[in-house]
Write a structure and sequence with these properties.
Blueprint (H helix, E strand, L loop, with lengths): L2 E2 L6 H7 L4 E2 L1 H4 L7 E6 L5 H12 L6 E6 L11 H7 E2 L1 H4 L4 E6 L15 H14 E7 L1 H11 L3 E16 L13 E12 L1 H6 L3 E7 L3 E7 L4 E4 L9 H11 L25 H17 L8
Parallel strand pairs: 1-2, 1-4, 3-4, 3-6, 4-5, 6-7, 7-12
Antiparallel strand pairs: 8-9, 8-10, 10-11, 11-12
């Protein structure tokens, strides 16, 4: 089944070329079924790229999914055109009285700031508080995961000696968890961040379950409250070349960032990297939509 997206969304052309099953509003209205309503709070600077990353994975299930994009009202994006935001995005005030089956809160390039220093932190905490009663399951990615761990459970973050960037090997700790059904015992996943969370606090917290981690990259996938909150500190949604783009961008800005580990063939940035995590990315998003959203959400919220 398809994902339903706005007819003119630029990501549509990319997804159609990849044979991702999508549907516009006109065709969706003709189908007499109850689709899942997913809200995406996109905090990434290059929003159109993130839209394609996430929609590619959300469109790989037998479920029909309605997508709504959310932007912050207290922060103006500098890397996405106002016309695009006006046409395809809404604000929290416009949706706060609605119920959503699932929600995704993305990462953001604000890790080196204390949470309270982020200019939209108060707005974000209001949204995260709202998800506890208005969303069946919320998936938090990278900085979004760290923000959720801090706000919901008081688990802090700390700055790393150097940026954690690369494709790392991970181990599954809880095979009975539905989110990890079908996962290999060990698998690859990309990370791109300057901070990490305190694993000691994670392991001691009675509500948080550490489902998967990496010896090099630290805690990766966590779940709380029966899957109502899911935190993923890396970027399974990334394309093969995304880390290379970030590395080139940062070096161009004069930043002393390391070459992404275990990523370029022979550690040579001049060579094209391979995607070693695609299957597990599709699997995790499919498991989330099926077991934590579709299987748990009420047919009629009222």
């Amino acid at each position: 089944m398809p994902i339903k997206i706005p007819k003119l969304l630029p990501a549509r052309e990319i997804l159609e070329e990849e044979n991702i099953f999508i549907m516009d509003e006109d065709r969706a209205k003709q189908q007499d079924i109850r689709p899942l309503n997913i809200l995406i709070l996109n905090l990434m600077p290059e929003k159109e790229k993130t839209e394609a990353h996430l929609l590619r994975l959300l469109g790989n299930t037998p479920l029909q999914v309605n997508i709504s994009f959310l932007k912050t009202a207290t922060h103006q994006s500098k890397n996405t055109s106002p016309m695009h935001l006006e046409q395809f995005y809404t604000t929290f005030e416009q949706v706060r009285n609605r119920k959503f089956d699932g929600m995704i809160i993305t990462g953001a390039p604000v890790e080196l700031l204390d949470f309270v220093e982020v200019d939209y932190w108060e707005e974000l905490t209001g949204i995260m508080d709202w998800t506890k009663t208005n969303v069946t399951s919320t998936l938090h990615i990278c900085w979004g995961a760290q923000a959720a761990l801090f706000y919901h459970f008081g688990i802090g973050k700390y700055e790393l000696p150097e940026k954690c960037s690369g494709v790392y090997l991970h181990e599954v700790h809880n095979r009975s968890e539905k989110l990890l059904r079908g996962f290999d015992d060990i698998y690859f996943a990309p990370h791109s961040r300057h901070t990490d969370v305190y694993i000691e606090q994670l392991l001691k917290h009675p509500e948080v379950k550490l489902l998967s981690s990496s010896e090099e990259a630290g805690p990766f996938i966590m779940s709380a409250n029966g899957g109502r909150q899911i935190m993923v500190t890396g970027h399974l949604e990334y394309e093969a070349g995304t880390l290379a783009e970030e590395y080139t961008r940062d070096r161009g800005r004069g930043l002393q960032v390391p070459v992404p580990k275990h990523y370029f063939p022979n550690n040579d940035p001049g060579r094209k990297p391979h995607n070693k995590w695609r299957s597990h990315a599709h699997l995790m998003f499919s498991n989330w939509l099926n077991y934590y959203v579709y299987q748990e959400t009420p047919y009629e919220w009222d």
